[in-house]
Design brief:
With about 260 residues, the protein is mainly beta. The chain folds into two domains: about 150 residues, no CATH class; about 100 residues. Helices cover about 5% and strands about 40% of the residues. The chain has two helices and 17 strands. The chain has a five-stranded mixed beta sheet. Strand 12 and strand 13 form a beta hairpin.
């Protein structure tokens, strides 16, 4: 008779989420247990499985002895150098890293977050608590500490918030004809101030429109169109149906993104 092994149960899982991405999942980081945690997990019969957006730890602690206070420590490696361009989070300074821990949490509300605020913030920065092992060639982004007693909920989350910044459309080439225009969103609402005649640093004339409120940065950006309000009655009002979205590489800390459009 063939012995059928019982399925290995999930002890807990960690999932990264990010409001920038359409599916809400953040798959641009990697979790790995440190060397001491690997030894501890082997002794306790635990298995570590990487996921695209986090990791799962499998096993059953009911038949294993562990010392009170023992914890699992996982290292977070960032795979996206542009993270801070679209994330509402400043880069850590002075060698700090992100630090998340299940210790001392009450778990009174869902989703079960490994950070205190609704999203990862600067208050999650901590000094690096142990030297980076020589086998790691990529810079450490953060650590996750999971206590074994008591165990945390089965599903844990780390959630990042996308940035919202002011957009400024700058049109060159034929600025005069735009003085009767507006920039509208897909619902036909006017969320931009202007038009405003400006002079660029190279002396060229241009027309600018500034978003009244910050606009969220998204994987699939919000769509805006340039409309001639004087042509609405004749249904020829849409001059540019899909205006370009901003390119936001290397603009950490900027509160306004300029989008140049050549007419």
């Amino acid at each position: 008779m063939t012995n059928i092994m019982p399925p290995i149960k999930s002890l807990f899982s960690i999932q990264f989420q990010h409001a920038f991405f359409t599916d809400g999942r953040f798959n641009r980081s990697e979790l790995t247990p440190d060397e001491e945690t690997t030894i501890l997990m082997n002794r306790l019969g635990l298995l570590f499985r990487k996921q695209a957006d986090g990791a799962i730890v499998l096993g059953d602690l009911s038949s294993h002895r562990y010392t009170p206070g023992e914890k699992l420590l996982f290292r977070i490696t960032l795979k996206d150098p542009d993270l801070y361009n679209y994330t509402e989070l400043l880069p850590p300074a002075n060698g700090d890293v992100l630090w998340f821990s299940s210790s001392g949490k009450q778990w009174t509300r869902q989703p079960y977050l490994l950070h205190e605020a609704n999203f990862v913030s600067e208050q999650d920065h901590r000094p690096e608590q142990k030297p980076v092992e020589n086998r790691h060639t990529e810079q450490c982004f953060g650590h996750i500490e999971i206590a074994l007693d008591p165990l945390p909920p089965k599903q844990l989350y780390i959630c990042f918030l996308n940035r919202s910044v002011h957009w400024r459309y700058i049109f060159t080439g034929a600025p005069v004809r735009l003085m009767g225009c507006r920039i509208l969103d897909s619902a036909g609402k006017n969320g931009f101030a202007g038009p405003e005649r400006i002079t660029l640093s190279d002396g060229r004339d241009a027309v600018a429109f500034d978003s009244i409120q910050p606009v969220a940065l998204l994987q699939h950006p919000m769509e805006f169109q340039l409309v001639d309000v004087e042509e609405i009655d004749r249904k020829k009002n849409i001059l540019i149906k899909n205006l370009p979205a901003p390119v936001f590489h290397g603009d950490v800390g900027n509160n306004r993104l300029d989008i140049f459009v050549q007419l």
